[in-house]
Inverse folding.
């Protein structure tokens, strides 16, 4: 069993905007691409060109519908580790391989001490852990720990690969523990919410709900010209045209 | 519990991503985003977006981020191949490049000596069309095109004939200013990153996004309002919006009077040879009626108050009416009322009226004013730029119908009456557009143009403006193998790739000797009626025993289904291994504010015996002695291959494939001397060049004097003439007059009614032709969409992307499926007039009730693309192509028109109608039809490649 830090100096995490996510999979493939040769290397694929290709992905995008008919909505929902404040996936770990960092709150797996028992993936309510069958260890989102502190990178590139790639700007990275951070303000402004808060894991990552749809009806068209013509629509139009053009 | 021993991560946190980062251009779809390729130990480690690049500004989509797996895919061809077994068997032997090039040159040389038109050269997702088209011109064949006839020629032609620009890569909405955005029928990747970036911006600014699409996925999922329209009826919906704007007098009259042919007088003289043409003065200038002077006068003048309605007497006493009157009469008629549109499209009349009010509100109550003075083409100075902030975008869902040309014209009429083209907040051109309506480019290939050993006197593709331009003989017969620019499809500006194999095999209009294809998977997902297509590729002439298409040369980097049907295979490199130029002479990547072009350069070396196709094409050209690429002594004019051509080739003096860094020191843009170090400049600049326009040249470029003069100087335009939007198309009327028996070039009898009907000078809506096929009971429309993580058929060879989309379902409306007794996950037969396909159903809410759909190009032939024969793409994937006829039913006289738009020849593959019936229990589990597997063609043992 593994203990959690009492507090963390920062709460680094992602804010994901369900209003703008179009489900393009950029966050999923850029994550896989970075991490298969990064901290989590390798993220292997089984039967990659065969009948049942499947591999380890630290971020997956799901699409589903909510509601019926025209009133319904299609939602794209990217899913990855939420870096919870009190996650069971850490506390169940028998070897201490799964741990939450005191300095920034990132939940990581130490591949040297992970024995691949999969207890953590059973404990995670969000299904965010991925067992790597070739590597024999558990993999998970690291918030691209090898990017965000990478001093060889330009400062603007020190963000997780998914945030760097996202074409619609639906993904934001920062310190959610700091109320003045851009991500905290975004959460406040847009009513960001926790995924399944009833489980009590206190996820750090937040989701922004779809905005209210803009289908307000503009005021009815005011007749700016006094209608002098009568008759069919064509005559009315031409009479109006003549008045406007001759002004 | 104990606190874990946290490992010291410090050594892992600042590892450089690469030994070296090289910038180049993505090719995972058609957007051509800027990428940074991170290289470690000589291999590709990571690819991300280039923040400085005008197209993607740093972001990169799901495809682009999986490019590494495309580059290392085991489906990559290894070496040149010569067929040794029967065609289609996949039996090949590897040969040397020398033997391959010699063989190709011998075959092609024979054709060129005898009759160059016996070569049909068609390219697919080709991004080097300015080279491939030029090569074909030097060869002398009229039979060249890329895949636009399948994809989007209706968009391109309708736009270019109406306002000198078009949707897709020819322009885009003014994302920073627009107040209302409508998205019509967009397949989810056109465009990819630019549209995604834009949608993010619009959502942030609170701009209303309305999507008009039978399916609510992707971009449509995040729209504020989804209008689940019935396929093929968008034209009626848009026309009803025009109807409402006219009825409520919410149109921009100044804009119409200044920038369009609305005031131009149309001759009314029934039966005359010029009935319906524009009345012109002795200099050919269009006439209008000036209400100030009460005279008929040259319309291209200032200080006029032109009449937009009324009947006027011309000098010869004949009557004429302003074009606007005809536009108004057409769209205000009951044919285009919201009620009529509701009946056909399923969109409530009240919704149509509301959308019209919202459009009017955005355009006229939320006007954008920029304090930027500018001068128009007639010399009038304007102190401000006034914008109607309504943006629109449309793509294949509009294009791939037999009524797509007119439908797209209606969309442009809608934009134009709102005054929202190239104004702040509206739809904006990207250089080299705008061009004349249509562009001054005439295709060649009439009788006499094609001569042995001679180049074609001009390009194969262009824009006819009357019957005299058509590529037909004295009897009106087609001159091109695909019948483009004949009476079958007079405005076929992108050719008709989809008809090449069927026509060639049937010898209609004539047989060919060599079919040469580049990256065009015409033996699978790029053909309609696939069973017949594969039969055509293997049919033999009974008397000679020779294949009806005697020789097939194919170039591709990957083992597509078509490889097995080639006689000679020329393996291409990947996009990371070669030079390319994304040229303004070709398909532009410009931004509205900034003309741009780009290059690819080899960031890694090929690890196998493959060559860039463009180098191969130039090499074959030299072997054939083609002009332009061969010196007088028969040597290569570009001994350095394609990069040498990119730098040193000039179309006109000072104008070459790349517009940036021209001139001796690289300081000139657009026009300038050859710069021997041009490619080095590009690479140093991130592999692109962008030229920012000054503010006064950023809008109203159809009528902006400074921009026009600049664009002539840079070679984008030929002459500094104003561009008038053609609400009323004189070109269309000229074709129609020919059908009425006027002029020297007239359609043969069997074509007359069709030309008369569809060459209406004003856009109109008519039902797609699939109705002609549906004698049986086919109640459902069937369409396809491209998933955002896939591009054409390419994604399935990519081990990451195929984990996202490895098979495809038939998506059906839940309530409608229940009426047919179909439940979720059922296996069904999808039946059309020509065949049936078996697939598994997935029910959903967000789809028009009369529509079924599936993801495009996931279904694969077993064994192709380097996949195992039991891959889900083959066992549970399927194509609708089997169900789509390539020919319409016989007309009287036995003639069969292609299943295409009658104006442009655009393949009408979204017109498909089907019925869906539950399959028997024992039939569940696998899709049908299945073809014999293609085993390891061209890629050797997969395991070996994977190592």
């Amino acid at each position: 069993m593994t203990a959690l830090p009492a507090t963390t100096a920062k709460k680094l995490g992602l804010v994901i905007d369900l209003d703008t996510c179009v489900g393009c999979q950029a966050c999923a493939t850029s994550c896989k691409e970075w991490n298969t040769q990064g901290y989590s290397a390798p993220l292997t694929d089984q039967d990659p060109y065969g009948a049942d290709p499947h591999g380890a992905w630290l971020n997956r995008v799901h699409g589903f519908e909510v509601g019926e008919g025209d009133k319904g909505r299609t939602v794209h929902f990217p899913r990855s580790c939420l870096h919870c404040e009190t996650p069971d996936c850490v506390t169940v770990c028998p070897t201490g391989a799964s741990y939450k960092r005191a300095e920034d709150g990132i939940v990581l797996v130490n591949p040297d001490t992970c024995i691949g028992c999969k207890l953590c993936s059973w404990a995670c309510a969000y299904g965010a852990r991925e067992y790597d069958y070739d590597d024999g260890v558990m993999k998970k989102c690291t918030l691209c720990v090898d990017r965000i502190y990478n001093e060889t990178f330009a400062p603007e590139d020190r963000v997780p690969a998914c945030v760097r790639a996202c074409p619609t700007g639906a993904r934001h990275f920062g310190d959610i523990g700091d109320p003045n951070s851009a991500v905290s303000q975004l959460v406040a402004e847009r009513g960001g919410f926790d995924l399944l808060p009833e489980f009590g894991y206190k996820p750090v990552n937040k989701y922004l709900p779809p905005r209210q749809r803009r289908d307000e009806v503009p005021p009815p068209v005011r007749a700016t010209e006094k209608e002098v013509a009568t008759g069919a629509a064509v005559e009315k139009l031409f009479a109006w045209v003549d008045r406007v053009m001759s002004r | 519990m104990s606190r874990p021993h946290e490992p010291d991560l410090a050594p892992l946190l600042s590892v450089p991503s690469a030994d070296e980062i090289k910038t180049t251009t993505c090719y995972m779809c058609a957007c051509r985003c800027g990428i940074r390729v991170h290289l470690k130990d000589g291999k590709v480690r990571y690819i991300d977006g280039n923040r400085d690049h005008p197209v993607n500004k740093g972001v990169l989509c799901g495809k682009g981020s999986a490019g590494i797996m495309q580059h290392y895919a085991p489906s990559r061809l290894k070496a040149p191949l010569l067929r040794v077994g029967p065609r289609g068997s996949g039996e090949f032997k590897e040969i040397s490049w020398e033997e391959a090039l010699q063989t190709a040159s011998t075959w092609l040389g024979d054709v060129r000596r005898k009759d160059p038109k016996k070569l049909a050269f068609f390219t697919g997702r080709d991004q080097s069309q300015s080279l491939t088209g030029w090569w074909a011109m030097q060869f002398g064949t009229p039979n060249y095109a890329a895949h636009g006839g399948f994809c989007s020629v209706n968009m391109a032609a309708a736009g270019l004939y109406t306002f000198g620009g078009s949707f897709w890569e020819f322009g885009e909405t003014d994302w920073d200013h627009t107040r209302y955005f409508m998205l019509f029928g967009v397949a989810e990747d056109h465009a990819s990153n630019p549209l995604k970036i834009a949608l993010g911006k619009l959502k942030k600014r609170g701009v209303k996004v309305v999507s008009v699409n039978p399916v609510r996925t992707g971009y449509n999922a995040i729209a504020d309002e989804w209008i689940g329209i019935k396929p093929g009826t968008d034209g009626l919906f848009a026309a009803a919006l025009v109807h409402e704007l006219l009825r409520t007098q919410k149109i921009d009259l100044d804009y119409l009077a200044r920038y369009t042919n609305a005031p131009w007088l149309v001759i009314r003289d029934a039966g005359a040879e010029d009935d319906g043409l524009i009345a012109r003065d002795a200099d050919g200038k269009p006439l209008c009626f000036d209400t100030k002077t009460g005279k008929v006068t040259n319309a291209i003048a200032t200080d006029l108050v032109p009449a937009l309605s009324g009947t006027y007497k011309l000098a010869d006493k004949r009557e004429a009416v302003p074009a606007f009157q005809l536009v108004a009469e057409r769209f205000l008629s009951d044919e285009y009322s919201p009620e009529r549109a509701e009946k056909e499209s399923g969109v409530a009349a009240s919704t149509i009226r509301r959308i019209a009010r919202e459009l009017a509100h955005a355009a006229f109550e939320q006007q954008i004013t920029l304090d930027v003075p500018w001068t128009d083409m007639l010399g009038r100075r304007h102190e401000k730029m006034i914008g109607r902030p309504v943006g629109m975008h449309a793509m294949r869902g509009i294009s791939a119908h037999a009524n797509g040309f007119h439908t797209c014209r209606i969309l442009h009429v809608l934009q134009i009456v709102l005054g929202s083209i190239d104004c702040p907040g509206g739809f904006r051109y990207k250089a080299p557009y705008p061009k004349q309506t249509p562009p001054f480019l005439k295709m060649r290939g009439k009788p006499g143009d094609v001569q042995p050993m001679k180049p074609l006197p001009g390009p194969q593709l262009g824009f006819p403006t009357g019957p005299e331009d058509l590529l037909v003989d004295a009897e009106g017969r087609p001159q091109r193998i695909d019948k483009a620019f004949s009476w079958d499809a007079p405005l076929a500006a992108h050719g008709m790739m989809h008809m090449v194999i069927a026509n060639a095999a049937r010898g209609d209009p004539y047989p060919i000797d060599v079919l040469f294809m580049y990256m065009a998977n015409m033996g699978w997902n790029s053909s309609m009626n696939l069973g017949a297509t594969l039969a055509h590729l293997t049919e033999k002439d009974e008397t000679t025993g020779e294949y009806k298409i005697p020789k097939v040369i194919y170039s591709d980097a990957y083992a597509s289904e078509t490889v097995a049907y080639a006689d000679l295979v020329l393996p291409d490199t990947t996009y990371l291994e070669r030079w390319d130029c994304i040229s303004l002479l070709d398909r532009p990547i410009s931004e509205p504010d900034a003309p741009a072009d780009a290059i690819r350069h080899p960031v890694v070396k090929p690890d196998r015996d493959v060559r860039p196709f463009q180098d191969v094409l130039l090499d074959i050209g030299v072997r054939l002695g083609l002009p332009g690429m061969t010196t007088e002594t028969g040597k290569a004019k570009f001994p350095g291959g394609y990069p040498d051509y990119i730098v040193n080739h000039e179309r006109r003096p000072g104008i070459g494939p790349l517009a940036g860094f021209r001139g001796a020191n690289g300081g000139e843009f657009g026009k300038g001397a050859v710069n021997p170090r041009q490619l080095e400049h590009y690479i140093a600049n991130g592999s692109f060049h962008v030229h920012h326009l000054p503010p006064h040249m950023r809008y109203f470029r159809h009528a902006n004097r400074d921009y026009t003069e600049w664009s002539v100087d840079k070679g984008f335009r030929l002459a500094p003439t104003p561009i008038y939007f053609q609400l009323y198309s004189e070109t269309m009327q000229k074709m129609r007059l020919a059908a009425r028996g006027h002029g020297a070039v007239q359609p043969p009898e069997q074509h007359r009614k069709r030309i008369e009907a569809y060459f209406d000078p004003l856009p109109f809506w008519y039902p797609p032709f699939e109705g002609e096929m549906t004698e049986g009971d086919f109640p459902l429309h069937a369409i396809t969409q491209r998933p955002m993580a896939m591009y054409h058929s390419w994604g399935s060879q990519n081990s990451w992307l195929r984990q996202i989309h490895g098979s495809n379902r038939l998506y059906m409306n839940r309530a409608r499926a229940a009426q047919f007794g179909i439940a979720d996950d059922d296996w069904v037969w999808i039946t059309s007039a020509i065949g049936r396909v078996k697939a598994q159903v997935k029910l959903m809410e967000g789809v028009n009730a009369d529509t079924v759909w599936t993801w495009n190009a996931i279904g694969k032939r077993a064994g192709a693309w380097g996949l195992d024969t039991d891959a889900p793409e083959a066992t549970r994937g399927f194509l609708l192509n089997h169900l789509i006829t390539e020919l319409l039913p016989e007309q009287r006289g036995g003639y069969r028109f292609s299943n295409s738009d009658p104006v442009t020849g655009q393949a009408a593959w979204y017109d498909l109608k089907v019925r869906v019936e539950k399959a028997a229990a024992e039939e569940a589990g696998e899709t049908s039809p299945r073809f014999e597997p293609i085993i390891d063609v061209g890629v050797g043992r997969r395991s070996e490649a994977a190592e």
Observations:
- The first strand of chain A starts at residue 12 and ends at 17.
- Chain A touches chain B through 92 residues (CB under 8 Å).
